[in-house]
């Protein structure tokens, strides 16, 4: 079946530590996280900004995590203070958190894949089953 795949990338700068990690990552430090969000759908939908079914999703919706933490995003945050306690601040769980929060903002039929780079050489991918 034909389908659309929307792709957007952005960065945010935040501090974190991995709780109970025996090593330097257990101490507060920072990363410029790079995030890639891929949204796939075989149909189009209206969005907050248009009543017409012409988008998989508004790019703005996929980029919410780029916003400053005071505006609901993850930029310039201490991730341990912002993520709910069930999400550790590993790249794995940050990717799941961004996935879960983005999914909430999308129509049900849209499939999602989130990639989070913690450093330029280490990243994790998390996607719908
Ligand atoms: N599977 C995971 N492993 C690690 C994570 C993670 O989220 N998932 N996170 C960390 C630390 O947060 C850490 O900041 C990463 O540091 P490090 O591996 O030292 O990164 P570098 O790029 O500096 O690696 P070098 O090998 O020292 O160059 C650790 N592991
Ligand atoms: Zn780290």
Automatic annotation (TrEMBL):
Q: In which pathway does it act?
A: Purine metabolism; 7-cyano-7-deazaguanine biosynthesis
Q: What is the main EC category here?
A: lyase
Q: Residues in the active site? A: 25 (proton acceptor), 76 (charge relay system), 118 (charge relay system)
**Pfam families, alphabetically?**
PTPS
Look up keyword Metal-binding and say if it applies. Answer: yes
Cofactor(s) of this protein: Zn(2+)
> Which reactions appear under catalytic activity for this entry?
7,8-dihydroneopterin 3'-triphosphate + H2O = 6-carboxy-5,6,7,8-tetrahydropterin + triphosphate + acetaldehyde + 2 H(+)
The entry's Zn(2+)-binding residues are 16, 29, 31
Q: Which domain of life is it from?
A: Bacteria
Which keywords fit this entry according to its UniProt record? Answer: Lyase, Metal-binding, Queuosine biosynthesis, Zinc
Q: Which SUPFAM superfamilies match?
A: Tetrahydrobiopterin biosynthesis enzymes-like
Q: How is the cofactor bound?
A: Binds 1 zinc ion per subunit.
Give the GO terms filed under biological process for this record: tRNA queuosine(34) biosynthetic process
Q: What is its EC number?
A: 4.-.-.-
Gene Ontology terms for molecular function: 6-carboxytetrahydropterin synthase activity; metal ion binding
Entry's PANTHER family? 6-PYRUVOYL TETRAHYDROBIOPTERIN SYNTHASE, PYRUVOYL TETRAHYDROBIOPTERIN SYNTHASE
Entry's family note: Belongs to the PTPS family. QueD subfamily.
Name the chain's protein.
Answer: 6-carboxy-5,6,7,8-tetrahydropterin synthase
Q: Which organism is it from?
A: Marinithermus hydrothermalis (strain DSM 14884 / JCM 11576 / T1)
